[in-house]
Structure formats: C-alpha cells, structure tokens
UniProtKB/TrEMBL annotation:
Its EC number is 1.8.7.1. This is Sulfite reductase [ferredoxin]. One of its GO terms (cellular component) is sulfite reductase complex (NADPH). The keyword Iron-sulfur applies. One of its GO terms (biological process) is sulfate assimilation. The keyword Metal-binding applies. It catalyses: hydrogen sulfide + 6 oxidized [2Fe-2S]-[ferredoxin] + 3 H2O = sulfite + 6 reduced [2Fe-2S]-[ferredoxin] + 7 H(+). InterPro entries: NiRdtase/SiRdtase_haem-b_fer (IPR005117), Nit/Sulf_reduc_fer-like_dom_sf (IPR036136), NO2/SO3_Rdtase_4Fe4S_dom (IPR006067), NO2/SO3_Rdtase_4Fe4S_prot (IPR045169), NO2/SO3_Rdtase_4Fe4S_sf (IPR045854), NO2/SO3_Rdtase_FeS/sirohaem_BS (IPR006066), SiR_ferredoxin-dep (IPR011787). It comes from Chamaesiphon polymorphus CCALA 037. Residues 65-124, 361-428 form the Nitrite/Sulfite reductase ferredoxin-like domain. PANTHER family: SULFITE REDUCTASE [NADPH] SUBUNIT BETA (PTHR11493:SF47), SULFITE REDUCTASE [NADPH] SUBUNIT BETA-RELATED (PTHR11493). One of its GO terms (molecular function) is sulfite reductase activity. Residues 166-342, 443-579 form the Nitrite/sulphite reductase 4Fe-4S domain. The lineage of its organism: Bacteria, Bacillati, Cyanobacteriota, Cyanophyceae, Gomontiellales. Its cofactor is siroheme; [4Fe-4S] cluster.
Length: 581
C-alpha cells in the first residue's frame, strides 16, 4: 500500500475488511444467531457476498423495531441468465421474496424482501442453479457489463461477451469464504476460468498481485470502494461506457479477429448533495492495448487504484477522484509502472449511439432474439399485466436463455422462428407489449432506481413515481404541440445515481422529500454529462417548471435538434434567463 511520512487514519470499513478473515466474519457467526438482522459491522462485509440489509419504511411503526429485510443481487457478466437460474429466481421470489424480480442497471437481478433466516437457502439455491451473488456489491469489482445482443455473425459482440466473462473471473474474490459461508464449503457448479485468466492470477507483474495471498489481487483490504467495468464494441453505447471506472472497447480487424481494446478510465456518477468535493465524472481516454496484454493492463489499473485510492475518506475513494487529483498523465504513468510497458495511442472509433435491442431481431444463425421492455426493471404481476407469469411460461416451455440489459430490460434468445408467433401470443395474453414501436418513447428510454421504501439512502420516491412522471411529460408535450418528441429521462431517489441520471437529457435526483434536483443537457447517446439546472423542484410543480423550458425549446431549436443537445447549445444560463427560473 502507499506509504506517507504521516500515516493517515483509515476509514472504519478498512479495519473491518482486514479483520474479516477474507470476508468470513462476522457474517458467518451472525448467521448462526437467532436474530432478524445483522449488525452494522456484518452489514459491511455482507455486501461483498451480494446482499444489503434494508428496512421497509412503508411498514415502520413508531416505537417498534424496523422491518428488517435483505436485498440480494446476482452477478451475471454480460447479463447472462441460463433458463434454470431464471426459474430458480422466480421460485425464490415467491418462497422468500416479495413476489417480484428486478433487473438492475448493471445487468443482474435483485430480489427484495428476503428475511435473514432465508438468506442462506436463497443464496444456496442461486449457486446450485448456475448463478452467483459473489461480488455483486462491496469494495471490489462489480458485475462486468457488455452489450447483451447475441449476434452470431458480428464477432465483435461475441468478443465483448467473452471478455466480460473472463475479466469477471480475473477479478472475482479467490479466498473461498463465499462457499464456506453459504454452501458449507461446497464449490460452485461452474466451469474453471480460462487458462489465460488462471495464468494472469498467478503472475506477479510489477507488484500487481500478492504472491501466496488467499486474495492475490485484492489482499486483505480489497479495493478502496466499488469498481465498475464495462466492455463494448465500436459505436454501441448501450452500457454507458463513460460512466465506468474502466471501459474497454473491442477493436477487430476486417475479418472480425480481435486485435485489442481501447481503454477509458475514471468515470463514476455517485456524489453527495452540498458536498462540492464529490461530483459526477466521465471517463478519460487512456490508450490502446493488444489482446495479449489486456489482463496485465486490467491488473495494472486495479492495482493503481488498490494501492493509491483514498482509504481514509469514503466519499473520496472512487478511482475518478484519484484521476481527478493526479491528472490523466500521472495516472497513466503509474499504471504503466505496474503494466511494465507504454500504453499505445487510442484507435479511431465511430461515434457512439445508444441501443436498446428491443423487439425481434435475427441472431445470424437462423434463430431469433426478442428484447422485452421492463418498466424500471420490475418483473411482476399486477392486475392484467402479468410479465412475471409470461416470462416463466416462455422460459419453462422453450428452455431458452436470457440476458439482462443495461437499461433494465431483458432479451430472450436462441428462439426458433417457428416459435415467434407463439411467444408473442403468450406475451400479449398476459398484457405485455412485444412491439417496441407501440411503447411510448419516454417510457422506452427512461430508468429509475428502486428508492423508497427499501433503499436506506433514498430521500424521496423514484421507481414508484417515474411512470406518472412520464405520463405527465407526455401530456405536457402533447399540450405544447410536441407530440413526437422523445428524450432520455432518468430518476433516482438520492444523489448516488444508480439509474445514471447524470448522463440523461433530463435527470431527476432526489434532494428533499417529494423534491428533486433537476439536471439538463445530457445527450441521447449518453456520452456527455448533464448539468445541474436547479437544486429543488417539487414533484407537484413539474408542469409549471418545464412548460417555459419546452416552449423555449420549441421556438429556438434547430432542425432535428434533440432536447438535450438544445439545452447544451444554448446553455443553462440562457434557459434560466428566458424562463425566469
């Protein structure tokens, strides 16, 4: 670790990690206690195992104990969900959860409402059905994202999914604690990592690993904070690459053979209201590395953050702050020390576009895939809308896999053309629209985090009010003579930014009960940060607040100019002046 002449006081969680015996304690001991909650110390270590302890605020009774329950998150590189895993999650949602499954913005699933006593059997069932929750939360690499489209004749997409799996394996905790705690030592039912991944884990390149340590890459303290990686292909920004700690872009030759990767680093969206030293930041270009060197480069970047990231101030611990404080040149030089060679210049790329892959598509091998819109990621049955029932029937009947998308939707694939009409009928019979052109574009491109009642950080609503916000926006656009207008709306109940509102054309960030900070001037491709327009807009004032802004947009926009690009061009100061906000 970095040494200084005056040792700094480490954050409490750093001591908890060191004393945890590589993530075993106090979780293992507290699982044996007849209590309905974990202590604060255990909660911090439990995150590494893929779970957060929550309190359902809707069920709070003054003077009584909190309504403790666990949120459990799966780890699925590239969003891959084999059929038996999906059916297991569906059963667990009824047996232990709240009858819903929630697709996340990092291509996994979350389950809510699990009691402490049911946490072990739930995790055991997930692992026994080809899943995992290890590393879905905590101070280490999170789920590795990749475009979910299963194109068989677009080799760049296959490369991205392959390396999402391999880099996830490279950065998975190695100590064995997960299987000891949840499966009584029984190893997962999964394949061995690729030979080159095993070799990279065993190779001490310029102090990137700790030889002989149970955690060769992480050591006893793991990372200073969470670390997020995404891999994509040229032109495809379905994974919000500039919001990641580390972003990789596949580079191929004319034959589709993998040559290497463009590298971006230092993105991150979490921040804290009224703490100007915290901020959203987009990733910087770092350079290009060949295919043969990608694992060494990933290890070098992880080691740089591991050894020099801030372990004293949790709010300053993400890699984006290290790069901001050092500058890209110093950061790159330090990475090259660990890497052992110079990083090459970036390869030229086409402009990025946002893709969601909804609707029916050819895979390229004679089979089809279908992207299904899931409003705010919540798979549920609600009245005549029975998405959960429909997906269960489809997966049970056709035994087909699924991929969760970065936009909280799902793709089902390897579908025989003869089964297309049958699957459409199942969806329509359960109130689910398979044709994305019949879904309001505001709904199609919006996202919201869960927020209240379960997220302890939320200061106001998000998922539960987002549908009504979209409806109100559509009504307002119709009223103002903008019926065909579409833009990206994202909403979160707190400034942590889990639904990535800071990359949206319109971002709502919870700041007070029933009130939101409003961010404008992002772009549809999610390649530009939005900017703060106001710190507090009460949800009841939405129409009054946005009417003059949209009237200004309608009057002064350029041909084919979108709302986010308009706001960026004219500037927020101009909008405030014209709208008298």
């Amino acid at each position: 670790m970095v040494t200084t002449s005056t040792p700094k006081k480490l954050a409490k969680v750093e001591h908890l990690k060191t004393d945890s015996n590589y993530l075993r304690e106090p979780v293992a001991s507290e699982l044996l206690l007849d209590t309905n909650y974990f202590t604060e110390d255990a909660i911090q270590i439990l995150k590494f195992h893929g779970s957060y302890q929550q309190d359902n605020r809707d069920n709070r009774v003054k003077g009584e104990e909190k309504d403790y329950q666990m949120m459990l998150r799966t780890r699925n590189p590239g969003g891959f969900i084999p059929p038996q895993l999906y059916l297991a999650l569906d059963r667990l949602a009824s047996d232990y959860g709240n009858e819903t499954i929630r697709a996340t913005t990092r291509q996994g699933f979350q389950m809510h409402g699990i009691l402490k006593k049911n946490l072990k059997p739930a995790i055991t069932a997930i692992v026994q059905n080809m899943g995992s929750t290890l590393g879905a939360c905590g101070d280490l690499n999170r789920n590795v994202m990749a475009p979910p489209a299963p194109f068989k004749k677009k080799p760049e997409y296959r490369h991205a999914l392959t390396y999402a799996d391999r880099i996830a394996d490279l950065l998975t905790p190695q100590s064995g604690a997960y299987y000891e705690v949840w499966l009584d030592g029984e190893k997962a039912i999964s394949g061995e990592p690729a030979p080159e991944v095993k070799a990279a884990l065993a190779t001490d390149l310029n102090r990137t690993i700790f030889p002989g340590d149970p955690e060769p890459l992480y050591g006893t303290q793991y990372m200073p904070r969470k670390f997020k990686i995404a891999i994509t292909v040229p032109g495809d920004n379905s994974i919000d690459i500039f919001s990641q700690d580390l972003g990789l872009v596949v580079i191929t030759n004319a034959k589709g053979q993998l040559l290497g990767f463009n590298v971006y680093a230092g993105g991150g969206l979490g921040r804290t209201h009224n703490k100007e030293e915290t901020f959203a930041r987009i990733a910087d270009p770092i350079g290009y590395v060949t295919k043969a060197n990608i694992y060494d480069l990933v290890k070098a970047i992880v080691a740089t953050q591991r050894d020099y990231g801030d372990r004293t101030n949790r709010r300053h611990a993400r890699m984006k702050y290290l790069i901001h404080d050092w500058g890209v040149a110093k950061f790159k030089a330090k990475v090259e020390e660990y890497y052992g060679k110079k990083i090459q210049p970036l390869k030229q790329l086409p402009a990025f576009k946002y893709l969601d892959f909804l609707g029916w598509h050819e895979q390229g091998d004679g089979k089809l895939f279908l992207g299904i819109s899931v409003v705010n990621g919540r798979i549920k049955d609600d009245g005549d809308f029975k998405l959960r029932t429909a997906l269960r029937e489809i997966v049970q009947t056709y035994k087909i896999p699924m991929r969760v998308t970065p936009h909280q939707n799902v793709l089902i694939y390897d579908i025989k053309p003869a089964d297309r009409d049958k699957i459409d009928k199942i969806l329509i019979a359960n109130g689910v629209e398979p044709d994305p052109t019949k879904i309001d574009t505001l709904v199609r491109y919006s996202m919201a985090c869960p927020a209240l009642p379960t997220c302890g950080l939320a200061v106001t609503e998000s998922e539960r009010v987002a549908p009504s916000v979209n409806e109100r926006f559509r009504a307002l656009l119709d009223k103002l003579g903008l019926p065909d207008e579409q833009f990206v709306i994202r909403m979160t109940g707190c400034p942590n930014g889990c639904a990535r509102p800071y990359m949206a054309e319109v971002g709502f960030v919870g700041s007070f009960p029933e009130s939101y900070q409003v961010w404008l001037a992002g772009c549809p491709a999610q390649t530009r940060l939005a900017q703060v327009y106001t710190d507090r807009m009460h949800i009841n004032d939405l129409e009054t607040f946005f009417t003059p802004i949209l009237e200004y947009f309608k009057r002064d926009r350029k041909p084919d100019e979108g709302f986010g690009d308009f706001c960026n061009r004219v500037g927020l100061a101009s909008i405030r002046e014209v709208c008298k906000h």
